[in-house]
Amino acid sequence: MLSYDDKQILETSPLKLGKNGGKKAYLFHNTDGAEPVITRHYDHQFQPDAAYKASLPDMTETVDSVEGANVAIQQVGISGFRLPLKFATRTGEALTLEARVTGTVSLQANLKGINMSRIIRTFYAHKDALFHLDTLVQVVEDYRRELDSLSARVKVAFNYPMLVTALRSGLEGYQYYSGSYEAAIEENGNLRRFVELDFVYSSACPCSAELAEHARDQRGVYAIPHSQRSKARIKVEVAPDTSLHLEDLIQHARAALKTETQVMVKREDEQAFAELNGAYVKFVEDAARLLYERLEADKRIYDFQVACAHLESLHSHDAVSVIAKGVPGGFRADFNDFSTLLG
């Protein structure tokens, strides 16, 4: 059986391999071209000592040249890593939620790759902390330092539950909000923090409402205006030296749009919701402008982008709109992946 010691290495691969710190990268071959003589066996008793672990090859360090174009990569890392984190509510209480992590760093030219597992180890170093946006800042700073990169970005997505009360019956139920916190350090050292929210609401068409009333008034015809489930994706950049919680964005969306979809409903609640939609009819353009007005007035929000999509019940297509605050060099109204809103 071949051992890890290179005494029994008969031939290295013809691929260009390098050395770093005494470590070697090997591809095992027999000199006669036959298949390697390696047994299919797992040794449950084997425990590597320090010398063995020091001998393990690291392809990010041992390979002398990169494959393909020798250029820098703007973002490389992991996506879809999950772990439970204790998120802080706006009142400071702990709420344990499943978090989905994306972590990337920049990679300079002439470097083969990064150690992908370090983002995971960095998060586990903070797993017992009460998690909020500033905790993520510490994580991304640690991550950037560990990987010795010029820039770094970490995003944590989660579903945030809030207990909401029905409109008239007094029943309560949990509404879940898809949100995320994100922190990024740019190559110039500039730190940026972001909060993102998906907010689901109902949109009753003003044109349809007027046409229905016209039919009732002019011809005595019972007509129902169309309305539909709709969603706004709100992403904001938090101003320096301020704090913003996901619940703050939820309150902004509720106040601006008025017609959040309901959780617990009895007949009196359904009637109330119909009246609420009648009081706050809105086109998709209205939704974007209402949110703009609310977000622009919050001095904790440096910049923002809002994308709205109405899953039309009249048409076989959706109605969409995008608006940004207009900060020079900031968000642009270039959102185009509307399938992720209502898919």
Description:
It is a single chain. This protein is an alpha+beta fold. The chain folds into 3 domains: 1-64, no CATH class; 69-176, Urate Oxidase; 190-343, Roll (Urate Oxidase), CATH 3.10.270.10. 26% of the residues lie in helices and 31% in strands. The chain contains 9 helices and 11 strands. It has helices at residues 50-55, 59-62, 117-125, 133-147, 206-219, 246-257, 267-279, 284-296, 339-342; strands spanning 19-20, 23-24, 73-88, 94-107, 130-131, 152-165, 172-185, 191-204, 227-238, 301-310, 319-324. The strands form 2 sheets. Strands 5-3-4-6-7-8-9-10-11 form a 9-stranded mixed beta sheet. The chain has a two-stranded antiparallel sheet with strand order 1-2. Strand 1 (19-20) and strand 2 form a beta hairpin. The radius of gyration is 28 Å and the shape is elongated. Mean pLDDT is 86; it is low at 1-23.
